[in-house]
Amino acid sequence: MTGRGADTVIRARGMAMSYGGRDVLRGVDLDIRRGEVFALLGPNGAGKTTSVEILEGFRRRSRGEVDVLGADPERGDDAWRARIGLVLQSWRDHRRWRVAELLSHFATYYRRPRDPAALLELVGLAEQSDQQVERLSGGQRRRLDVALGIVGRPELLFLDEPTTGFDPRARREFHTLVERLAREEGVTVLLTTHDLAEAERLADRIAMLVGGRIRASGTPAELARSAAARAEVRWTGDDGTHHRERTRDPSRLVWELHRAAAGPIADLEVRRPTLEDTYLHMVQREEGGAGAAGSGADVEDRNGTVSGEVSAA
Amino acid sequence: MRGTTSGAGAGGATGRHWRAGFLRGGIELRHLLRNPKEMSGHLTNVVVALLLVVYVGGEVADTATPMSHLVLAGFAAYLLFQIGLVNLPQMLVTEREEGTLLRLRATPGGIPAYLIANGLLVVTVAVGTLGLLLLAAAVVADGPLPRGAEGWLTLLWVTALGLLAVVPLGAAIGAVLPNPREALALIMLPTMGLLVTSGAVFPITSLPAVVQQVASAFPLKWMAQGLRAALLPDAARVAEPAGSWELPMVALVLTGWAILGFLLAIPLLRRAARRESGSRVSARLHKAARSGAVPA
């Protein structure tokens, strides 16, 4: 998690936000590198939108240091804006405009815009170019929002819950589009989502934001490995009692059990929690209110890996 | 760290704002002209005014000026007033709700272009409506037209100053009102009140003195008086409360409102733009969806 110079597109240290005495963000650190797709994953109300709005320069943070493309977002000027693209959840603007007309118009605000016709091709709206914006389906509208977000060739693209309310097909098409943008165009993407599968599919790195705090971050593989690191071993003893133990070394525990036992062990089972188990567990704890004031120490450790207990299903 | 100096110089940026603003205004105007619902709103006003002119009989005071001419001048002033203080705020509130303002805020130079485009749109609609009304009245109902160069000049400056008095004020109102549904209710009542008390459609001298004094603090009375000065023969001024057109006072009051409007509009629009964010727009949309105003 080290950011060096111009390779770091977003850097936040202790980013915090309180509204009327309620802490929405409690000190978030972020380092997002040029060219990566970074997912901010968390349940509703975790502080994702607030984080993104601070980084976009739309909201004033309460505390902390934030640097986006070399500037403090609160003081970002037009030249800074031109390097950023946004796709928000609920744009319904310009409903009377035609698709190509709208995209061509927004191209005029930038010095080196993309070709609108080629861009409509890229987002799969070439056939709809003469259609009125209000006649587009939800998925088409969001793809138009992406086109509008990248028409000025931004270096950084924010996607705030981009697939909320999509059917599976629209979601898949959207994922393909984001992958193309990231891989072929080299755009740095900050994506927020409450959908773990979406984050795993799209992101190079994921930060789990729960209760206004980053509880874990890393590549999907790292997160999955550390989630699996504390396995649960279950068995039934000779006296018929059920046992369950959590360990980082299930193989050793099972070996010790066998050495102690006279014969085979009944109902022996080793479960490795998936990333999904861990994520759901964090969310449940948060929603249960237990984690709201707690330190979260048992699910977070300093080097950015995740561990934690997983309740038996 | 890399700086943020890749943008154009100030001159180039301003040029681009104006270009984008004009383009935007032109496109919005085209959409308006093609929208039967909105067009019928503006055309209905013109038709109502024409009907009034046709049906109002009699003469102004002891002059040969038809009463209908006085009514038409007053109604023309009311139309300008309404475009600035009812239609413009409604448009701004709607565009805030839909996220148009946020989209432009997220675009470099978007807010200046937005203001230029909307200013252009409002002025074009206002001048177009006024022109259509005067022309149609003249053709259909022998309505008044300015007499000589002086009359045209008066029409021009009263219209320009009247719009300057109401457009920034309307923008300020549009920047603070909550949503399009409530906005209409909040604006229409005072507007109708002023329409009645400002002597726009019937001579103001028939109203109690207190009401006249209150109404003369607002721009509508002076816009109507100025347009009467432009459209009616000089003899008709005997029907005015002061016995004259009081053109210096018209200029003074309208300029005052223009200054006040700008002083209010600049910080309020800036505040409205600064407060826009994705979560705000979606909160408003959810509220609107619950009240059944827009599809969820």
TrEMBL record, chain A:
Q: Where is the composition biased (Polar residues)?
A: 304-313
What name does UniProt use for this protein?
Answer: ABC-2 type transport system ATP-binding protein
Tagged with keyword Kinase: no
Q: Locate the region Disordered.
A: 288-313
| ABC transporter domain location | 10-236
Membrane topology, as annotated, equals:
Peripheral membrane protein
Xref: SMART domains: AAA
**What is the scientific name of the source organism?**
Streptomyces zhaozhouensis
Listed Pfam families: ABC_tran
TrEMBL record, chain B:
Q: What Gene Ontology terms describe where this protein resides (cellular component)? A: ATP-binding cassette (ABC) transporter complex
Tell me the ranges covered by the ABC transmembrane type-2 domain, including all copies: 37-272
Q: Which UniProt keywords apply?
A: Antibiotic resistance, Membrane, Transmembrane, Transmembrane helix
Residue stretches spanning the membrane = 39-58, 70-93, 114-140, 152-177, 184-204, 249-269
Topological category with respect to the lipid bilayer: Multi-pass membrane protein
Q: Which domain of life is it from?
A: Bacteria
Protein's cellular compartments: Membrane
* GO annotation, biological process: response to antibiotic
InterPro entries linked: ABC2_TM, ABC2_TM_bact-type, ABC_2_transport, Nod_factor_ABC_transporter
Name the record gives this protein: ABC-2 type transport system permease protein
Q: Which organism is it from?
A: Streptomyces zhaozhouensis
